[in-house]
Amino acid sequence: MQLWFTIAQTITAKVNMLKFLSEFSERTKDGHIQWLCQCNCGNSSKYMATRVKHNRVNHCQECSRKIGAEKIKIHGMRNTATYSSWISMKDRCLNKKSKDFQSYGARGINVCKEWINSFEQFYKIWEKNQKKIN
Ligand SMILES: [Zn+2]
């Protein structure tokens, strides 16, 4: 099996709910690599590889629509400290290039899958803890 295939599978298994199936020979108009990925609901479709790699896309369109309503509710959170701490938490634990990775991810400190994929999940726990503190 080609190395990129293994790498692609590892990436998607770790940070994404989309399962990598294969790579398209055809690229997008802008020259981006396209992957065929399967959502955990079973739907498979074409995705831009970089978007999957960088966790920009987690679900098929159908699932995205379903969780869309929930997302809109918390959409206003994007510029808040909670949202940035979620981003930096993922960075520390998953991004090998992060300056803090050595103290977190490299030591086996990991983010649970629910949190990686969903700021909403993270926010729910965070909100609960805030209430305890206050
Ligand atoms: Zn789906």
Can you tag this structure with a few keywords?
single chain; 134 residues; mainly alpha; 2 domains; three-stranded antiparallel beta sheet; 6 helices; globular; binds zinc ion
Written overview of the protein:
- The chain is mostly helical and 134 residues long.
- It folds into two domains: 59 residues, no CATH class; 54 residues, no CATH class.
- Helices cover 49% and strands 11% of the residues.
- The chain contains six helices and three strands; from the N terminus they run αβββααααα.
- It has a three-stranded antiparallel beta sheet with strand order 1-2-3.
- A hairpin with a 5-residue loop joins strand 2 and strand 3.
- It starts with a helix and ends with a helix.
- The mean pLDDT is 79.
- Bound molecules: zinc ion.
- The site of zinc ion (ZN) has 7 residues, from helix 3.
**Class inferred from helices and paired strands:** mainly alpha
Overall geometric form: globular
What does the average pLDDT come to?
79
C-alpha termini separation: 54 Å
Oligomer: single chain
- Structure annotation, total helices: 6
Q: Radius of gyration from the CA trace?
A: 16 Å
Question: Uncertain runs with pLDDT below 50, 5 residues or more?
Answer: none
* Range of helix content: 40-55%
Strand order of the largest sheet: 1-2-3
Query: Which hetero ligands occur in this complex?
Result: zinc ion
Assess the beta-strand content as a share of residues: 5-15%
In the residues, how many domains can be counted? 2
Query: Total strand count, please?
Result: 3
